[in-house]
Amino acid sequence: MPSEPAGRSGQPTRITKGPLRRRNRLALAVGIPSVLVLSVTAAAAAGAFASTAVPQSTQASQQARPSHQAQSGQARSAASGRRSANDPAHVPSRSVHVVRAHPASSASATSCTTVGHIGDSTSVGMVSAQVLPDPAQRLAAQYASVGVRHLWVDASGGRSIVETLPGQVNGYNVASTWDSQGFRGCFVFALGTNDTANVFVGSNVSRMARIDEMMSAAHGEPVLWVNTHTLLSSGPWSEANMQAWNQELVQACARYPNMRVFNWAAMDQPGWHLPDGIHYTPAGYVIRAAAIAHALAHAFPRDGHSAGCLVS
Q: Which of 125, 161, 174, 194 could form a disulfide with 131 if both were Cys (CB 3.0 to 4.6 A apart)?
């Protein structure tokens, strides 16, 4: 895979919170009460469902794809009338800037010097100072260790590629807005956990359509997609639904030569999870951040290219 052009750095970020929402009907309506909301876990006080986002108004980002805004506006929350502190909230901005302190070895370095990471709540803990007080353990430092010099991050609790929360930008519109702002680089998509749950409860947007939509927003740039895994045996976020999503990622790989899939599901361990079976302990987030960064180096190495779709 070719190296991407250098991008910009030092992008301000925004912190948001929010539960899962989807078009027409919520996965929350079928029996798992707000499992993607931090307060149901032991890490609630840490604010692990905070997210970071490049500066952009919600209105401008959603206008990048008006059809999504109109359709998601038709959604009716099963939790209406049960508002809590988990509703979307905003706190002051901060900035994310990757500085490579030590040169990465050629064996563990990526050609992706500029990276845009778009994720859901399973990415939030990797960028949260409350969850990971040591900056060296967070995602930015892990990317820097494999040669990433410029990082754009947007990780938002409850995010999907299609549906939105009030005040939230979906995955497609994040990537589209970055493109309009001049982003040129490799993408890491850590999305799908909520998308496959939404398909399970009746979305008319299929899993493959969601993958195709996100890949279209990458405009042919290198993409590493992190696959999904949970410990749940039933419901929207069941492991069976995660496996269905992962299978379609591999099928999509055959049509997108710029795409690789990090097989996180193959290495994920039960002991890294919180009791909800979806999210991670601080130790789990440390492992996840390092694993994603090293998968990027294997998928798009500094010299040559990876063989095949799956990266482990």
A: 125
Residue 84 domain flag: yes
pLDDT tens, residue by residue, 182-198: 999 999 999 999 999 99
Tally of structural domains, the chain? 1
CATH code assigned at 85: 3.40.50.1110
pLDDT in tens, 148-168: 999 999 999 999 999 998 889
* Domain contains 1: no
Residue 272 included in any domain: yes
The strands making up 310-311's β-sheet, listed across from edge to edge, are 150-155, 114-119, 186-190, 223-226, 259-262, 310-311
Residue 80, domain extent: 11-311
Please say whether the beta carbons of 100 and 147 come within 8 A: yes
The overall pTM is greater than 0.85? no
| Whether 186 contacts 223, CB under 8 Å | yes
Q: How many helices and strands in the chain, by DSSP H and E?
A: 10, 8
CA dist 175 and 189 (Å) reads 10
Residue 306's pLDDT is: 82
Mean pLDDT of 48-65: 30
Give the dihedral sign, CA 170/175/176/182: positive
Answer whether 291's CB lies under 8 Å from 267's CB. Answer: yes
